[in-house]
Design goal:
Blueprint: E1 6-13, E2 22-29, E3 35-38, E4 41-45, E5 57-59, E6 65-69, E7 87-89, H1 94-101
Parallel strand pairs: 2-7
Antiparallel strand pairs: 1-2, 1-6, 2-3, 3-4, 4-5, 5-6
């Protein structure tokens, strides 16, 4: 026991506006589930108060806003799909992502 739940998630930086850099990576949930950790950063839930940036989490150290959600099977994770920015998949979870999420 004592293990925190981990899950492959879609993480998009909303600090610069509606469309930002995005990745697929493994996050670790806090015991309460109100925050997640990813690559040494801790993100706390905005609990529905995200405002115009369409963010649902913020970095507890910088205040930068992010959209973090479960990845979609069809790969259309961006809220604004017209973005030309790529969605990068972290190497350490790439195989599991393509096999378990995308079904490839």
């Amino acid at each position: 026991m004592g293990q925190h739940r981990q899950r492959i998630m879609y993480i998009e930086d909303k600090s610069e506006g509606l469309v930002g850099q995005a990745r697929i990576g493994l996050v670790t949930y806090s015991k309460s589930g109100r925050s997640v950790s990813y690559r040494g950063r801790t993100f706390q839930s905005l609990a529905g108060s995200g405002g115009p940036s369409k963010a649902n989490f913020f970095d507890v150290e910088t205040g930068e806003e992010f959209w973090i959600s479960g990845p979609r099977k069809d790969g259309n994770d961006r809220l604004y799909p017209e973005s030309a920015l790529p969605v990068e998949v972290d190497e350490d979870i790439a195989e599991a992502y393509w096999r378990d999420i995308r079904g490839g």
